Amino acid sequence: MLPVADAGAFAANPASDAAADAPAELRPAWAGRRVVLVHDWLTGMRGGEKVLESLCRLFPSADLLTLVHLPGSVSKIIEARRVRASFIQHVPSRARWYRHCLPLFPTAVECFDLDEADLVVSTSHCAAKSVVPTGRALHICYCHSPMRYGWDQFDAYFGLERVGPVMSAAARPVLAWLARWDRDTAGRVDRFVANSRFVAGRIGRYYNRRALVVPPPVDTEFFNPGDVAPGSHFLVVSALVPYKRIDVAIRAAAQAGVRLTIVGSGPDLQRLRALAGSEVTFAGALDGTALREAYRQARALVLPAEEDFGIAPVEAMACGRPVIALGRGGAVETVDPGVTGLLVDRATPAAFADAMGAIDAISFDTSRLVRHASQFGVARFEREFAAVVTEALATAAC
Fold first, then answer.
1. Which stretches of the chain score pLDDT less than 50?
2. Are residues 139 and 259 in the same domain?
3. Considering only CA atoms, which of 66, 205, 210, 190 is closest in space to residue 124?
4. Which residue of 60, 103, 308, 397 pairs with 145 in a disulfide if CB–CB is 3.0 to 4.6 A?
5. What is the pTM of this model?
6. 93 lies in some domain
């Protein structure tokens, strides 16, 4: 087995939760079982990490396995876990180069030692779902998406315009191999849970598997309107990666003659800066309080990409701000046109510029925006996901 960072044994007493000592009727179904969480990588707080936070609360004694961990990059709840990283943790300058280790991800996740696990819960948009549990362990995967770059978004990451003809040609067979591996390892999952009906459809299409749908948690109590009047600028909150199509929002703002603030970090930063004019502000990554203020001060949130679900739009709505989103993917399930925002039928700067111009003609009711967002709260996610796990464990015991 290849070396694994911090690869000690599992905690000696994984059933030491207070829940294990509670009356039987109050214990979760997994009390007394060795639970392991698996997450693709811990390099920043994005939507997937907010799901992981809730899973850490549901499974407070679980170890956490990940491909690479940048200490201090995620929330205290996650950092408090006993984190075990793969051999990719030892790559020099891993914060910058870990994505270049993509062809090694299959080996890395398959080397995780899960011999002592009774329940494996993976949260996956890349490789985490392909860990190898023992035959007795139940594996539930919360799937944010099948591997995007291996299936339907190759051009967004490795197209000619992104990496040039030589690198694009070299990457194509590698990504085709990864897509086959992604498909062939879907059988290692006993139960798929998708974050949206859109992703459930992709799971059915690429894995030929059925998935239950449990929308991800949004802290709709923390994100609230306050007493701040909206400004005139528009807002993007996103990881700065190619498939998010932030370039569309930048060009749309220029065409509409409006200001745009971009919150987030990622490898696409320099390319996006080169596209942006004086009307665009790059705010970087913000903590929760600063992000909430950014939502409150914006005219509307702009979502130009086809999202798997999209937590940022729900956070914006919880803060009383409408959303301008591409009318495909998860946004169709969260944005109510004319009530909580606008859906744009084409991912073009002109179409989004038109929507930016049209938003001022619509009167949005803050209370309806907040009420709409409240259905995606944290308590609902944790309750519904716990029910999925309870049912799956009961079925497996039969």
1. 1-18, 22-23, 25
2. no
3. 66
4. 308
5. 0.84
6. yes
